[in-house]
Structures are given as structure tokens and as C-alpha cells.
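for the recovery benchmark. C-alpha cells below, seq after
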């Protein structure tokens, strides 16, 4: 059988995926906002650095002016005494202005010549036509500023602070999602299982209903979404129960009402046959008598089936069915044409079962009559019972497996010429299964080379 997907699983997966997508969307928006704020913060830092460094650099350069020429600082903070050139020479080494190592800078004079270079800006190439303000140089953010005297500075960011800050934000928002995703899925699954418990209870309640139990469903305790469904199904079952009760009542009344006129017609036919003797029409009267007997038997079986449909076989009280079995056997041996052909092979054990005695008597009588009708006429029918099992066995021809599987269905008969309606075995099976037991057919009978055996497994007491 193909496994159907669960509603709880579908909802759990859908809700988890939806929550994950919402989380990712919110994280993407947060990362975008954070990137914008980081850029603004770092741009502001570059601008403030330029505004602070330019006056300091210009002041330092003016104090070190010699011969009208400004010189560029080296990568050493301060030259040694032996290496320092005397004042008045062509060049003078200028100590760079101290600053944060996350950026570097270059100072230009009014002619665009470099007059001061940071020790980390040796390899930095700045285009001459770069306007003041923010600009990108080789993928690095920079800011340019010019004072009134014509000096200008270009501050260039050299660290990966922006990217590192952005990646830290992505990790901070992404890792919790990876950790919480299984927890979210498990939580949603558990919540859905708990929320769907009333639906499972309703399913179990409906599964208990059958043709013998059509009581309305209990709508108390169900959620607002399920209560109308339970009430609607309950109303449907009530209407179905009324229709079935009417049908069963009609069948029972019809079968009961037919018994009297059939019995009267049979008696009149037998009286007429006795008066005519072997005269003209005797054969026809005999045929009418057989038809009326068959009709009487059929009405009796229909009445039994109507009682079965009413669901009377099961009992909550355990009863000893041994006296019932003995009574049925004695009645058949004493009042039918099969004189003393039924034998009970077990006479000591009790037969306890939670089953209506009348229902057991009907089932047993049908099985014994079938065994007598279809068995070998010179052999007795044996009944064995022990440990909640009753076996009805006869001798006779083997029954093919294909035919054996069909027996027990209403109006289904085997390859036989004996009288019958095809309802006896079906009635017995319905009674036993309704009571909670089981019925099985075997041919040949166990331990024999031919014959037929019906095994009744009586119901057990509910604990």
C-alpha cells in the first residue's frame, strides 16, 4: 500500500520553510541596513581624520620649510643623528603625523605636488584629477580635502574593517538560523501532532462505527473546526441507522408473517396429499410440498439474518455454552430425520465464552444441519470442543480449495444436490464474527483423507 504523506508533516515542513525564508529575508534586510550604517560610520571616520590631519600636516610643513622647498617624509619616524641632513640642505626628513594604522594619507601642495607621504603610502598611486570628497582608489575608499592655502590631503582606507564588520554581521545572523532550524522544525512538528490529536480521536471514533454500531459521534471536546464535522457525521449515521432499522424491521416482520401462511399452506398440501393418496396429481402435490418446505426454511433463515443484523450475538457476560450445545444436539437427534447421527466426542469440559446463548444455538444448529445434509449419509457428525474451540466434522467428498474459499458467502452453495438455501454457513460465520470469534473451513478434515470440518473459535472475555 502506498504511504500517504501526513498533514502534520506537510504543515511542519511548510511552516519551517516559511519561517526560514522570513528569517533569511529579515537577515538580508538587517545586513543591508547594517552595511549602509557601517559605510556611513567609516566614511565619517575618514572625513574626520582628513579634517584633523590636514591642519597638523600643514603646520608641521610650514615650520620645517627651508629655502622655499617642502620635503616628503620617509618611512622612519625619526632619522638617526648620523643620518639626519643638516638644515639648509636640499632635503629634510619630516616625521609623519601619528595616526591610526587602518588608513594612510598623502598631502599635496597647491600645485598638486606631493609634499608629505605616509610611510604606508609608498606604493599608492593617486590620480591627479581626483576631485575632493569621497572616491575609490584601487577598490579602497578615500576622502580628499583642501584648505584655503591650497594644501590638500587624500586619506585612503587600507584595512578590511568594512568587509570584516559586514561578515561578522552575516555570521551573527546566519549561525543562529542554522542552529535553530532543527529546533523550529521539531517544535512545529510537535505542535502539529498535539493540534491534530482531536482529529485522530475523531478518526478512531468513526472507525468504531459499523452496521451494528451507528451511535452518533460525540462532538464534546472537539475544536471549533471539528465539532461541526462530528455533528454532521453523527446526523448522517442517525439517518442511516433509521434506514437500516426500518429495513431490518421490514425483513424480520416479513419473514415472521410469512411463517404462518406458509405453515398453513404446507399443512393443507399435506392433508390434500393424504386424501388423494397415489391418485392423479400426487406427484405435483409432492413437488408443491417440497417448495413450501424450502420456502419455510428460507423464511426462517431470513428471520435469523434479520436478528443478526440487529447485533445480538455479543454479550458482556461470560456464559457456559456447554448446556446449549447438548440441547441443540439432543433436539436434532430426537426431532429430525437424522436420528442419532450427531455425536459429542467431548463430554467433560465446560465451554465458557462471552456470547449470547441463543446466537450460539442458531450458529451451531446451522453448522450441524449443513454437515448432515452434505456429509456421507452412513457416517455420523462428530462434535469436539475444548479450550474455547468447537469443531463440527463429517465424512464425505473433498471440497476443492477454490470452492472452499467461496463457501460462507450468502446464497453460495457448493457442488451438491442436497436441499438448502446457501445461508446456513453464512449465518453461522456472521454470528461468530459479530461475537468476536472466528470461523474456518477445512477439507479434508484434519487427520483424515476426506471429509469436512468447521472450526469455531469462540470469543474471549474482554479484560
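predicted aa per position
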Amino acid at each position: 500500500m502506498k504511504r500517504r504523506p501526513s498533514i502534520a508533516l506537510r504543515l511542519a515542513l511548510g511552516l519551517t520553510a516559511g519561517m526560514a525564508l522570513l528569517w533569511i529575508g529579515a537577515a538580508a534586510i538587517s545586513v543591508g541596513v547594517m552595511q549602509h550604517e557601517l559605510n556611513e560610520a567609516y566614511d565619517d571616520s575618514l572625513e574626520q581624520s582628513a579634517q584633523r590631519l590636514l591642519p597638523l600636516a600643514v603646520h608641521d610643513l610650514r615650520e620645517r620649510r627651508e629655502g622655499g622647498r617642502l620635503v616628503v617624509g620617509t618611512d622612519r619616524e625619526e632619522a638617526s643623528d648620523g643620518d639626519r641632513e643638516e638644515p639648509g640642505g636640499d632635503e629634510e626628513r619630516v616625521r609623519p603625523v601619528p595616526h591610526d594604522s587602518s588608513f594612510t594619507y598623502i598631502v599635496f601642495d597647491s600645485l598638486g605636488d606631493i609634499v608629505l607621504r605616509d610611510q604606508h603610502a609608498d606604493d599608492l598611486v593617486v590620480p591627479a584629477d581626483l576631485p575632493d570628497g569621497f572616491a575609490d582608489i584601487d577598490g579602497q575608499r578615500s576622502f580628499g580635502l583642501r584648505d584655503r592655502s591650497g594644501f590638500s590631503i587624500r586619506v585612503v582606507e587600507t584595512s578590511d574593517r568594512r568587509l570584516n564588520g559586514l561578515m561578522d554581521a552575516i555570521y551573527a545572523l546566519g549561525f543562529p538560523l542554522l542552529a535553530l532550524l532543527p529546533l523550529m522544525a521539531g517544535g512545529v512538528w510537535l505542535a502539529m501532532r498535539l493540534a491534530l490529536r482531536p482529529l485522530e480521536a475523531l478518526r478512531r471514533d468513526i472507525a468504531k462505527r459499523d452496521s451494528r454500531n451507528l451511535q452518533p459521534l460525540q462532538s464534546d471536546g472537539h475544536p471549533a473546526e471539528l465539532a461541526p464535522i462530528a455533528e454532521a457525521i453523527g446526523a448522517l449515521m442517525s439517518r442511516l441507522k433509521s434506514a437500516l432499522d426500518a429495513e431490518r424491521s421490514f425483513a424480520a416482520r416479513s419473514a415472521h408473517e410469512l411463517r404462518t401462511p406458509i405453515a398453513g399452506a404446507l399443512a393443507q398440501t399435506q392433508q390434500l396429499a393424504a386424501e388423494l393418496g397415489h391418485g392423479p396429481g400426487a406427484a405435483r402435490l409432492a413437488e408443491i410440498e417440497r417448495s413450501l418446505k424450502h420456502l419455510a426454511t428460507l423464511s426462517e433463515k431470513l428471520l435469523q439474518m434479520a436478528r443478526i443484523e440487529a447485533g445480538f450475538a455479543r454479550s458482556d457476560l461470560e456464559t457456559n455454552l456447554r448446556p446449549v450445545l447438548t440441547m441443540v444436539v439432543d433436539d436434532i437427534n430426537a426431532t429430525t430425520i437424522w436420528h442419532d447421527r450427531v455425536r459429542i466426542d467431548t463430554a467433560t469440559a465446560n465451554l465458557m465464552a462471552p456470547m449470547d446463548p441463543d446466537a450460539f444455538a442458531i450458529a451451531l444448529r446451522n453448522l450441524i444441519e449443513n454437515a448432515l445434509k452434505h456429509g456421507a449419509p452412513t457416517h455420523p457428525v462428530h462434535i469436539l470442543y475444548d479450550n474455547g474451540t468447537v469443531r463440527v466434522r463429517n465424512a464425505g467428498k473433498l471440497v476443492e480449495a477454490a470452492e472452499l474459499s467461496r463457501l460462507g458467502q450468502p446464497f453460495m452453495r457448493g457442488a451438491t444436490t442436497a436441499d438448502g438455501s446457501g445461508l446456513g454457513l453464512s449465518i453461522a460465520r456472521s454470528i461468530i464474527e459479530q461475537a468476536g470469534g472466528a470461523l474456518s473451513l477445512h477439507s479434508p478434515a484434519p487427520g483424515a483423507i476426506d471429509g469436512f470440518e468447521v472450526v469455531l473459535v469462540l470469543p474471549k472475555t474482554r479484560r
